[in-house]
Design goal:
The structure is a single chain. The protein is 61% helix and 9% strand. By secondary structure, the chain is α/β, with parallel strands linked by helices. It has a five-stranded parallel beta sheet with strand order 2-3-4-1-5, with helices on one face. Strands 8-9-10-11 form a four-stranded mixed beta sheet, with helices on one face. Helix 5 (100-109) links the parallel strand 2 (89-93) and strand 3.
Length: 521
């Protein structure tokens, strides 16, 4: 009979428990020294090892030959516990046994000494589900239990445990298991099962499980079953990133990054097409918003945290994309997008038609991005206008002061010289401006620009989307770019982005050009 992975690979010793060394080392030391407490409280999210550690501890306490605090697994006591042939280990689910009478029955049993073990152990799972009356009935026994009894309580909601219970237990907080620890464990289990699990696929499962190893093993189980249906008998099952994303119904990195590029470029048409594709492919629409939020969170972390890879759990390939997107968006805008995605996610759960709700959410998001950009440009224009006005006032004051302190003769000489310099400078500026205008006027449209955009799409989809629909004109050493998307010229102002486009132009046309905006006259 098939046994699910999380049961088959449940740790048998403390050393096999993943990501909870701060707890397992303490428990091993207590068992080894013989200083075992009478009551323990294990708290943490689901799937992090609370019940597993409770079972291991119950064995280690009763083991006849413990090995450095771990149960040996070979003695009579360990075998009795493993085979569930002893009544001295009692597991109680408080979710279904939460009445006062249930606890009173348990209290009445405690007076009996162990049948064939050293200690009687009571493991009470989801202990927060006990009623107030049940907690009160349990309180005195928990404070002064018999010498032969140990209680191990487990809960996912520590806030619901009365303070009187907390004060009588030795508390251990179980952490969420890190992406690295979990992916390594998944790869190890897959190898033992004769399955090839790629590192990126393991990291994806680890991220999806949100710190719960039991959830990760359940996802791995589903992926194996799904792959088994498509694998010929006798062939080894191979799980890559795509196999996992298809099984769990997420859109995958490539499609997600393409969607983010469209959002940053406010390309509504392509966003609608991409959303329609996700819907027809039966992708998880609420999950899509969650994936987007995680990506924009990574961008936020990249802009604010020095040890980005450690905090985010991103691979090197993912980090490259995050950096690319972070170059074209401000931190304020990232935070604004995250807030809106959270709001849209709540609304999506209430809406019957997830596709329409998602399309509306994306259009609103693009409009807000465009409005933010327009407002920012207006603010910059206002600041520059004020600076120009201030400079004009300063210039007038300077001229007034100079006129007051200089003699008439010196004033005349200086005025003549100023007029000469101003005339010369004006002539130079006018000649340069007329020259550029003439060059732009005589520039010819080049079809090679489309080849440049094609290469740019392969190298940087987000940059290419900003130049979508643009045209280029050439005259002499100048290449002028015409685009309705202001984001394209924002990128051109950045030297690294401008040089990247210039290199592609040189690669296609075979000549270096000065790049600039094409303005219709």
């Amino acid at each position: 009979m098939y046994q699910v992975l999380y049961r088959k690979w449940r740790p048998k010793t403390f050393d096999e428990v993943v990501g909870q060394s701060h707890i397992t080392e303490t428990l091993k030391n207590e068992v080894e020294s013989g200083k075992v407490a009478h009551a323990y409280l294990f708290t943490g999210i689901r799937g992090t090892g609370k019940t597993t550690c409770a079972k291991i501890l119950s064995k280690a306490i009763n083991c006849l030959s413990p090995v450095r605090g771990n149960p040996c697994g070979e003695c009579q006591a360990c075998k009795l516990i493993d085979s569930e042939q002893t009544m001295d280990i009692t597991e109680l689910d408080a979710a279904g046994n939460n009445r006062v009478d249930d606890i009173r029955e348990l209290v009445e049993e405690i007076i009996f000494t162990p049948t064939n073990l050293k200690k009687r152990v009571y493991i009470i799972d989801e202990v927060h589900m006990l009623s107030i009356g049940a907690f009160n009935a349990f309180l005195k026994t928990l404070e002064e239990p018999a010498e032969h009894v140990v209680f191990i309580l487990a809960t996912t909601e520590i806030s619901k445990i009365p303070a009187t219970i907390l004060s009588r237990c030795q508390r251990f907080d179980f952490y969420r298991i890190s992406v690295n620890d979990m992916s390594n464990r998944l790869i190890y289990i897959a190898q033992k099962e004769g399955i090839t699990l790629e590192k990126e696929a393991a990291r994806l499962i680890a991220k999806l499980s949100n710190g719960a190893l039991r959830d990760a093993l359940s996802i791995l189980d589903r992926c194996i079953m799904n792959a088994s249906d498509r694998t010929n008998e006798g062939n080894q099952i191979k799980l890559d990133y795509k196999a996992v994303s298809d099984t769990v119904g997420i859109v995958g990195k490539e499609s997600l990054y393409k969607l983010v590029s469209y959002i940053l470029a406010s390309d509504i048409e392509n966003i609608i097409k991409q959303t329609d594709y996700f819907y027809k492919s039966s992708k998880d629409m609420p999950g899509l918003l969650k994936e987007l939020s995680e990506h924009f969170r990574d961008i936020m972390l990249y802009k604010t945290v020095s040890d980005f890879k450690e905090v985010s759990g991103c691979s090197e390939e993912d980090e490259h994309i995050v950096k690319e997107h972070s170059d074209i968006i401000s931190l304020d805008k990232v935070i604004s997008i995250l807030e809106k995605l959270e709001y849209y996610s709540i609304n999506l759960r209430k809406n019957n038609d997830s596709r329409v709700a998602l399309e509306i959410a994306f259009i609103k998001l693009c409009e807000s991005i465009k409005n933010d950009s327009a407002q920012k440009e207006n603010d910059q224009i206002e600041i520059l206008s004020r600076r120009v006005s201030g400079l004009e006032r300063d210039l007038e004051m300077l001229k007034s002061n100079q006129a007051a302190v200089k003699s008439v003769k010196n004033q005349e000489i200086e005025k003549k010289e100023d007029r000469k310099q101003q005339t010369k400078a004006g002539q130079n500026i006018q000649a340069l401006d007329d020259n550029i205008k003439q060059i732009m006027l005589n520039a010819k449209k080049t079809d090679a620009w489309q080849e440049v955009l094609k290469i740019l799409r392969d190298k940087s989809p987000s940059m290419a989307s900003s130049f979508a629909g643009s045209k280029a004109y050439i005259n002499g050493n100048y290449l002028f770019i015409e685009s309705d998307n202001e984001l394209a010229f924002t990128l051109l102002r950045k030297s690294d982005k401008r040089n990247e486009i210039r290199k592609i132009v040189e690669q296609v046309i075979g000549k270096k050009y000065n790049l600039g905006p094409y303005k219709k006259r």
